[in-house]
Amino acid sequence: MTQKAFKYRFYPTSEQETLLRRTMGCTRLVYNRALALRTEAWYEHQERVGYEETSAMLTQWKKQENLDFLNEVSSVPLQQGLRHLQTAFTNFFAGRAEYPNFKKKHHGGNAEFTKSAFKWKDGKVYLAKCSQPLDIRWSRQLPDGAEPSTITVKLSPSGRWTVSILVDIEIETLPESPNQIGLDLGITSLIALSNGEKVANPKSFKKKRKKLCKVQKALSRKKKGSNNRHKARLKIAKVHAEISDARQDFLHKLTTRLVRENQVIAVEDLAVKNMVKNRKLSLSISDASWGEIIRQLEYKCNWYGRTFIKIDRWFPSSKRCGHCGHIVDKLPLNIREWDCPKCTIHHDRDVNAARNILAAGLAVSVCGATIRPEQSKSVKAGARKQKPKL
Fold first, then answer.
1. d(Cα 151, Cα 145) in Å, to the nearest integer?
2. Fewest CB atoms less than 10 Å from the CB: which of 130, 257, 290, 300?
3. Domains and CATH numbers, the chain
4. Buried b / exposed e along 201-218 (16+ C-beta atoms within 10 A)
5. Higher-confidence residue: 364 or 7?
6. Tens digits of per-residue pLDDT, 52-62?
7. CB 151 within 8 A of CB 163
8. 15 near 135, Cβ under 8 Å?
9. Up-side HSE of residue 263: CA atoms within 13 Å toward CB?
10. Cβ of 43: how many Cβ atoms within 10 Å?
C-alpha cells in the first residue's frame, strides 16, 4: 500500500470560511507560541522542550481567560501543528532544514484533520464543528474503496481554498520498458536526454515577470495598513500562483512522460542549494526547479516500479568524452559544443553529459562501483564549488 494525496479546489460557505479561518488562526497562534517558548527555553536556560511539554502547555493555555477562544475550534489541528513543529526541529537538528520560522497571517494557512476530526460519508467530507459538507470540485475521482486517513485544508496567499485528501491505495506498476535514459539538467535546455532529445525550458517566471513588476510597483504606492494595499497584495499573490501553476503543470507532465517511457532513469545529484548562491544564475536556476524535477522523478519511479539512479555530483559528465573516456582540463560554460583532442569526436555538451550520466548510472546499478574520478578522491567535501549548467 502507498500513501497518495489528492488535491482539490473547494468553495466554503460563509459559515465554513469563518470557522476555517478561525481554526487556522488558532493553529498559527499555538505554533508560534510553542516555537517562541522552545527557543526561549534553550537560549536562556539551555533546556530542551519537546512535543509532550508543548502539548501540556496547550492544555494550560486553553484554561486561560485570554486564550479561551482556543476551545471554540477543533483540538486536532492544534495538536497537529505542535507535531509539525516537532518535525521541523527534528529536521533542523538532523541538518536537513534551517531553524523553524514563525508563521505569518498573510502567507495563508492550513489545518490538518485526522480521522477523529472529520467524517467521510457518501463521498462527502464533513469537518469537525461543520454541519455542511465541503463544496469540493472533484476534478478526478478517488480510487474505489479509498478511505481518507488525513484531510488538510489550505488557504493560499491568493485566497484560493484547497483540500488535500490522503489515502492508502495500491498503485499498479507499469509494464517493463526496454528504454534507459540519462538526464542532464540545464537552463537553456531544461533537460538533455541521452537519446539526443532536448526539452526546452518554459521559463515560467520570465513570462510573467513584467506583469509581476507592474503589480509590485502598484503595491509600493499604497498606504501601509490600508484596504487598497491588501487588495494589491492579493494581486501579487495571484500572479505568483499563475507562475507556480504553470511550472508545476509542465513539470508533472514531463516527469510522468519520462517515467512511462523509460525503465531506468539516471540523473546527477546536484547541490542546488549551493548553486543558487551564484547571483548571476540564481534566478534562472530557481525558475528551472531542478530539485523539484529530481523529487518528482524519484517518487514516481518508486510508485510505478522504475529504477531511479543518482550519480555523484563530482562526476565530470560534461568534460568526459563519451567515446574514448578522455577528460579535458577546462570546459567553460560558454562552450556548448567541443571536439575531443584525443579521438576528434564532435560532442554536443549537454547530450554528451547525459550519455555519460547514463553510463555511470548503469555502472553503479550493476556493481555498485564508485564513479567519482581519481583526482577528486583527495578533495574534501565542500572544497570545490560546483558550477551551474547553462
1. 17
2. 257
3. 2-169 (no CATH), 180-200+239-376 (3.30.420)
4. bbebbeeeeeebeebeee
5. 7
6. 999 999 999 99
7. yes
8. no
9. 8
10. 9
pLDDT tens digits for range 288-308? 999 999 999 999 999 999 999
- Catalytic residue flag (residue 184): yes
pLDDT of residue 45: 85
List helix spans (H) across 194-226.
Answer: 204-220
**Tens digit of each residue's pLDDT (9 = 90 or more) over 126-164:** 999 998 999 999 999 898 888 999 999 999 999 999 999
Asked if residue 297 lies in contact with residue 267, where contact means CB atoms within 8 angstroms, the answer is: yes
Catalytic residue among 17, 170, 172, 184: 184
Whether 89 shows a pLDDT value over 50: the answer reads yes
User: For residue 37, which of 19, 64, 55, 23 has the smallest C-alpha distance?
Assistant: 55
Name the residue type at position 14: S
- The full length of the chain comes to 390
* Look-up of cell digits 579521438: 343
Q: pLDDT band at residue 1, thresholds of 50, 70 and 90?
A: confident
Provide the phi-psi class of 306: left if phi over 0, else alpha when psi is between -120 and 50, else beta: beta
Residue 84 parent element (H or E): helix 75-93
- Cβ partners under 8 Å of residue 366, min gap 6: none
SS3 assignment, position 192 = strand
Contacts of 170 (CB under 8 A, 6+ apart): 1, 2
Quote the cell numbers at residue 202.
518554459
Residue among 65, 249, 268, 269 flagged as catalytic = 268
Grid coordinates belonging to 370: 564508485
pLDDT value, residue 137: 96
- Distance CA(120)–CA(115), nearest Å, equals 9
Average pLDDT, the chain: 90
> Pick from 251, 257, 296, 250: which is nearest to 179 by CA?
257
Residues 346-350, mean pLDDT to the nearest whole number = 90
Taking only Cα atoms into account, the Rg of the chain, rounded to an integer number of angstroms, comes to 25
Query: What is the bridge-based pairing of β-strands 124-127 and 307-311?
Result: unpaired
pLDDT at res. 370: 54
Q: Which of 53, 168, 242, 350 is catalytic?
A: 350
